[in-house]
Every structure is written in structure tokens, then in C-alpha cells.
Amino acid sequence: MIPKLVPEQALDASVVAYTQALKAAGFSGDIETTYASRLAVATDNSVYQVLPQAVLLPRTTEDLVILSSLGQTSTFSHIKFSPRGGGTGTNGQSLTEHVVVDISRHMRNILEINVEERWVKVQAGVIKDQLNAFLKPYGFFFAPDLSTSNRATIGGMINTDASGQGSLVYGKTSNHVLALKTVLINGQVLSSYAMPTEQAEALAEQENTIGRLYRQVLRSCRDNRQQILDTFPRLNRFLTGYDLENVFNDDLSQFDLSRVITGSEGSLGFVVEAKLNITPIAKHKCLVNVKYDSFNSALRNAPFLVQAQATSVETVDSKVLNLARADIIWHQVKDYITDVADSEMLGLNMVEYNSESQQDIEQKIAQLSQRLDAAVATKQDGIIGYQVTYDSQAINSIYAMRKKAVGLLGNTKGRQKPIAFAEDTAVPPENLADFIQEFRSLLDQHGLQYGMFGHVDAGVLHVRPALDLCDPEQEQLMRTISDQVVALTAKYGGLMWGEHGKGYRSEYGPAFFGETLFTELRKIKAAFDPNNRLNPGKICTPYQSVEHLVSVDGQKRAYFDRQIPITVKDSFNSSLDCNGNGLCFNYEASSPMCPSSKITKDRRHSPKGRAGLMREWLRLTELQGVDVLAKEAQLQANRSSIKDLWPRFKNTLAKRNGEADFSHEVMEAMEGCLACKACAGQCPIKVDVPSFRARFLQLYHSRYLRPAKDYIVANIERTAPFLAKAPRLVNFVLKRDLTAALLKRSVGYVDTPLLSVPSLAQRVQKDYQFNLQQLQQLDEQQRQKTVLLVQDPFTSFYEAELVEDALRLIEKLGFNPVLLPFMPNGKPQHVKGFLRDFARTAKNAAQFLNQLHKLAIPMVGLDASLVLVYRDEYNKVLTDNRGDFAVQLLHEWLVKQSLPKIAQNHEYALLAHCTEKTALPATEKAWQDIFSRMGLSLQPVSVGCCGMAGTYGHEAQNLDNSKALFDLSWRAPIEKYGVNQLAVTGFSCRSQVKRLVGDKPKHPLQLLLSAL
What is the DSSP letter of 581? Predict the structure, then answer.
């Protein structure tokens, strides 16, 4: 039995008192103090892990005023805070052992836009891509283009002065900030913007907090102006921490306090609102993908491309390219980055051009193409080929691959993973190739592998050495390399932190700035935050403070991970390998990635959050002396006995009486998972939550009783065939209000689906009956014209008309369809963690399907979520006896057949099942091809999760989220096209539309059949 788990660190009593006082003071945001909630923000995209005392999630500026003002009282004046946005920082900027103030959940409103004056006003929690989606209809965009743009907040961008692609033309975030609203540590609200220096001097005369800030910043930046100019390198991506140089304009006539706050990493105040300038979207865009025989050639050729008047030049090395080839993203870009015959592509420069004039951009591309053609012909500069595309969708897909590079590097095989700590070095672009050559030599001397990508036009390259920080010697090597890279960047006129801020690298600040300028930083910090209560230890400490800066040697996630046995880590690698890149925080409603994260905006309910909870659960279990793998083996080998029930009953009773157990917190996060497996397809690390979730459920229920609904779901493949013998009677009972009330109250089940009437057995009778002996007697030609239809419980018993239509469609195409007898697949058992039963079901099904496989007749299934279990979960559980059988989905079979042409000119919209299109990214294209060949038009529509996901939407506890997910991305296209114009591939999706709209859409095969 798994033991009760109690976290090692108890909450500080004063923090508990502070949270209680917050509620009494009218704080309207969320206050989270559970261990799971704190763990969810204990990591970011760095190697560090620090557990906070509490997480505050304000809804309004007034909430921030309340929490700051309350913190000024003598009782709570020792409490410290760290602002947090998207949590995508690579250097631990928002990590703290104190109190996290997370603005990303609620403060996501776009407040005002002025098209004539070209500005927009937003709350700090607005996500970068969210803002650009809002601006696009107006013809504008917010320029800094980050790789994390679909989850990075504007507040986070301001606090790190983020830049990204195209910065040579568009600049950094600070170049676009017109004004800021910041809540100071004492609760005052500071409004900052560019003003005449005389106005700033007048404000500095005030004897109050605002006056003190203006006096200090004026003094620090004006009195030391020449030294500032002499010290700071002339770099496009240069990030100081506090931007002492750009507070003033060149002639010192204008002063902007916002420039100090921008890039301050939350150490000066809570940024709550920003007024930003916006940039017109260029009418014409072109991307030239230039291919090289080596990464060094790509680097050395970059200055030439910049001189060719490119908007931006991005680069990736062969390691990133090869990882991309194995990712879902590759099918979207492979036609635009094709391999070169007789040459290996080891480097790629992506060269973008933007213009208001078609003639201008074509002229530039023609000139560049002429020079590239000559280079390819003469094998000059290592250029082996290039491709040009004006297609906006293709360009977006290629940049999506580039943006995914951070995560893709984390998917490197083995225990040594490329990690972030020296990955945003900046040097003058003309020095970049020599700098990187020496950088690579440094890493080679240590025998390390690494991946590289970056912004060669700006002299910024992301280099991630592969280390296993669970090895103490390699953790020390990280420090050694870090020191060496600091020295190397100085040698080439650059610096360690060109783009991603300081965070735990703040200890290098004093040596870079020098004593005088670093003292000025400390004086500014003292003016804003005299008691070092805002993100303490980052950037600098207040003047005359004796507190220390954080260090590169700070506590890392590996400190905790190394407490888990290697065998357990290898077995649960899907959760242990999560590197925190946060792609699962993707805000886009049309993305299938993690619907529970989208709808709750709760970091626990994301693949990253669940992976972190699973890691900690495994660690705490190990500290209790439990061998998790041995326990799993025991559960797989032996069915629970009657004597096990009493201790599980007692433990369940203790749970209901409020007994603490960290396992309950993990369980809450796992129950929110829809088991859609979008994470397994879309996460660059392939974090597969449903897989380790199923294992956790099995282990959890070795201590606690299961709810009745789990048994109902897990046994649906056993009960449905019996219920389908009297479908009218069963449906009559289910339709009664009393039945619905009893199911909801006793089982927690709502909107129970009705059985098909007539049943499948009544519909098909003997027309397509399975007879093994007859199949074995078929000759080769007859076998080629035969198709075996594999049943699943959902379509066979709840949508029998679809199975009948599938048989008729196959028949109309000139084939002999045979309906296989229903054989349980096991997916419902796996979803609910009945892994022992699932293994037995899988074994039986595999034996049956392998017997049929010998006939060399194609086997086809209709529901992707069931068919894909044969390819994934079966491969994992039947490691020795899975066999060679293969079950295709209908579109996989149809796309290979000769299809009749029907000139009916019907147009349909395709809404594909999220599991299907993430596991099989060519799904939509295949259906589109099938329809096109038959003379029909099918347009894929980007949608996220419908909210049903098997039985998830039927569980009462999930009902509100299920409906909200449907409204998030499905309702709009349904209202736009109408149910009759839709093709929907998923059984769950069709059921959800029927439940919430009233009409049921067709499967694509039904539309094909009606056309025939």
C-alpha cells in the first residue's frame, strides 16, 4: 500500500496570517497555499526550483494595492514578493522562497486601442499572441517576436525587456513602451512615461515617495552619463537590468522613468498596465531558407544576409533540425526545407523580408536569389541550396518550428539534456562566428554535446550545453562553464545576458558594471524598495544592504530529482524529462494542447504542472521507503483481495474527514486531465500525461477506494453489449428524471448517452457477418478486395448507424466489408487506471487481431481514440507479445484507394478529433485529399478540444468545464457553418455537439456515402 505523504516544508505562520488578513481587507483575487499550487510555480524554464510560501493571483490593480499596503504594516513588513507572468524565464527570474504574485491568470484584459495614434493599453497579464490576434483586424501588431509568444505575458516581456526575431528593425520591448502603471511596494501607484526633463526635475522636488524615485534616478543617470556610455557595449540586444542609459534621450532633454522599470525583473514594483505603441503589418512578406554545409558557414554568411536588407536572419543548427524532423511540426514545414541532393544540410538561415510594396520585395528577393544561385554554383560560402516562399501559412509554420527549438532540444535522448544558463550571449554580429567557434571549442574541451539556434542578425545565439545536473560533478561543471562564458563574451565585446535577463546570473552584475555604476543600481533599488522585499537577490540589493545576490549555484530541480532512484526516473521519464518550456500554457483556443490548462488557467492543470507534481510524488514516496516499481508489479500480478478493502475503507474515511495527504492534491490535478493525449503529440518533450496519470491512479487506489463511476467507465466494454440486447428498455429507464437524478447523486454521472435503436446487430444482421473459416479460404485476389471493420464500443453501441454506413461505403467502393465481432479494446480501463485489467484485455485483443493479421486483409477502425490505443498503449504493455497486427483508421485506408469522381461541388468544413490530429498530423490533409478526389470540397477548421473527451464531459464534476471548452472554440464554427455542413471525425465531438446544440453532425464517411 502506498503510504500517506506529508510535505516536508510547513507554511510559515505569518504568511498564513497574512493571507487571512488579505481576505479580510477585500482582496478579490485567488489565494493558493496548497503544496501542489506552490509546486506549480516552484519552477520555470530554468534549471532552478524554489518552493514559495504562497501564490497570490490578483484580479485588479486594487488587489495589488491591497497586498502591498497590507505588507507595509508592522505585522507583515518582513514578507517578500516576486511578480510572475507566464513563467517562461530561463534564469529563474520569478522564482522565490517567499510569496509569488501571479498576474497571468486574471489580469488579461485589453483596455483601449487608438488606431490613429497607434497605441494600445493592456493589463500586464495579456499574452503576446493574444494581443496580436486582437490587433490584426486593425492592421497592426506588437513587434517584439518571442519564441514563447503564445504564453509569454506583456508584463513578463516588460520585466525582461524581451526582444526576439526582427529586433534589428523592430527593437526590444522597451522601444515600444509608451507608459507604465506600476504598484510600488508601499501600495502607491506610479504612472511613468516620457516627459521633458524639466517636468521630471519638478517631480523630484516633491518630498514623497514619487519625488524620491525621480531624484535618485535623475542623479544616478545624469551624473554618471559618460561612464554609462563608456561601459555599456553598443549592442542591439543589450540588457542592463536597470536601463541607466536610455532613461534620457541623446541630448538629455527627455526623461522616462519607465526605462528603469523595463528590464528590472520585478525588483522595483508590480507592473499592472502598459501603454504600447503598435506597428503596421507589412503587406508583403517573404522567407528565404538558405541551406549550408555546416553551421559555421551559416554563421559566417549571416552578415552578408543582413547587408542584403533583410528584416531578420534566424539560424538553427543540424541538431535542432534533426529533432524537428521527429516532431509533429515537421509535416508542416518539410516541403519548404527540403534536403539537398548529394549534400547534408547542417545549418539553416531563415531570412525574412517585409515590405509595403510587392515590387520592392520582389526586387530584393531577385537580387538575393541571383547571388545565392552564384554561390551554389561555385560552392561558395558553404551555401548548398535555398528555397523561397511567399505563403504566409508556410512562413508561420517555419517560425513555429524555430520557436519550438527550445523545447525540441530538451527531447535529446539520454540523461544529459541541453540546458539554459549561458544561452543568450550577445556579441557584436561581426564577432559572432569567431565567438561561437571559440565557444564550441570550450564545450568540446569538456566533451559536451550542445544545440544552437538564435538571432544571428543581432549577434545573439542560444547555446545549450547538454548536462546531467543530477550528477554533482556536472552540476559543478555548469558553474565552471558559466564563469568561462562570462569571460569569453567580455573578450569579444559582449555580455552573458543579451536577451533573457539575469535572474540567478545576477552575481555577475558587479563585475560587469564596475563598482561605481553598480552602486548606482543599488541606490535606485533602495529608492524603490528600501527593505529588499521585491524579488530579493535579483539584479542587485539595496544600497548599504548586507543581503546577498542569488547565485548560479542556487538550488536546482536536480537536487530533488536525484533523490528518486534511476530506475524509477527511467520508468517515469515522461514526467521527469519535462524541462519547463511551458508550451502547454498555449493560450490559443484553436490549439488542442491541454484543454484543462486553457479553461482553468491553473498551472497545476497543465502537463508541466502534472509532471512536476508526479516528480514530487515519486520523491516523497521514495523518502517513505516505498519501491514504486515493485508495488506496480505487485498490483499487476495480484487482484485486490477482500482483506485489502478494510484498510482502504479506513483511509477513505480519513480522507473524507480531512486527513492531509499530498496524494490527494496530485489526484485533484490528475482528475482534471481529459486524457486526450494532445500533450504527447504537441509537447516537444513528449510529456505524456495520460500514461503516467493511469499509473498514478492505480497506485493511489491501492490506498483509497475507487468511486463507483470509475467501475462504470472501466467496464463499459463489458456492459454495453448486454445492454444493447434491449436498447429500447435501457433508454426508457435512462430517460427518466429519477434515473438521471440517481446517477448524478450516487455516481456523479450526467447526460448518460443513449444506446442505438435499432442496435447494430439488428441493422446489419447477417449481411457482413464474420466467418473465419470463409476468410481463410479466400484467394489472393479476393483478399485484396476484402476489408475487416474493427468495432469499438462507442460507435457500435451508441452510434450504430455510423458502423452501418461505413460498411455500405466500403461496399459501394467495390470491396467486400466484413464486420469483426466486438472485442474490448481496453481504453476505458486504461483511462481510469485499471492497468491489470487493461493488460489482460490488450493481450486478448492482440491475440485475436494477430490471428487475423495472418490473413493479409486490411483491418480498419472508425474511432481514432480507440484505434490509437493499439499503436501506443499496446506497445507499452505488451512489450513481448504485441505481435505485428495493424489497425488503420478509415482515412488511412481510403487515401490509398482508387475513388470515384462525383461532380457535386458540395463544400464542407472539417472539425477533426484532437487526439487524432495531434497523433496523426496528416489526418486533415488526408481527408481533404479524399474529398477532393471525389469532387467534394473539405476545408479543415482549427479547433481545440470539444470538451467531451470520452466520458470526461459526462462526469458531473467536469460539466462546467466541458461546456466552457465547447464554447471556447467549437461553438463559433458550428454557428458559422451549420451542423449540416460539418464533417466531425470524433465520436466524443459529435456527441458533444448533439448535447449542446441539439443536432448531430456527420462523420466524413457519411458525407461521402450520401454523395455516392
Answer: -
Report the alpha-carbon angle 425-430-431, nearest 5. 50
**CA atoms of 991 and 733, how far apart (whole Å):** 20
pLDDT digits (tens, 9 = 90+) for 819-831: 999 999 999 999 9
Alpha-helical segments (H) within 352-431:
358-378, 392-403, 405-409
| Number of Cβ within a 10 Å radius of residue 633 | 11
> For residues 1001 and 992, is the Cβ–Cβ distance under 8 A?
no
In angstroms, the CA 482 to CA 994 distance is 58
For cell 474529398, name the residue: 931
pLDDT digits (tens, 9 = 90+) for 883-929: 999 999 999 999 999 999 887 778 999 999 999 999 998 999 999 99
Cell triple for 687: 510529456
Between CA 81 and CA 154 the distance in angstroms is 19
- The secondary structure of residue 459, as a DSSP letter, is T
Grid cell in block for residue 48 = 532552478
Task: Collect contacts of 732-739 with beta carbons under 8 A, ≥24 apart.
Answer: none
Buried b (16+ CB within 10 A) or exposed e, 239-277: bbbbbbebbbeeeeeebbbbbbbbbbbbbbbbbbbbbbe
pLDDT value for 110: 98
Question: What pTM was estimated for this model as a whole?
Answer: 0.93
| Domains assigned to the chain | 108-280 (3.30.465.10), 289-409 (3.30.70.2190), 412-498 (3.30.70.2740), 563-705 (1.10.1060), 716-884 (no CATH), 907-1011 (3.40.50)
**Interior/surface letters 193-213, b for 16+ CB within 10 angstroms, e for the rest:** ebeebeebeebbeeeebbebb
Rounded to whole angstroms, the Cα distance separating 614 from 578 reads 11
Contact criterion met (CB below 8 Å) for 933 and 901: yes
Residue 794: its pLDDT value, please? 95
Name the strand (E) or helix (H) holding 113.
strand 110-114
In this structure, are residues 6 and 35 in contact, taking their beta carbons and an 8 Å threshold? no
Query: End-to-end distance of the chain based on CA atoms, in angstroms?
Result: 59
Q: Flag residues of the chain having pLDDT under 50.
A: none
pLDDT of 895 reads 96
Contact predicate 456/166, CB 8 Å: no
- Give the whole-angstrom CA distance, residue 715 versus residue 702: 19
pLDDT of residue 870: 97
Q: What is the rounded distance in angstroms from the CA atom of residue 478 to the CA atom of residue 381?
A: 34
H/E segment holding residue 349: strand 347-355
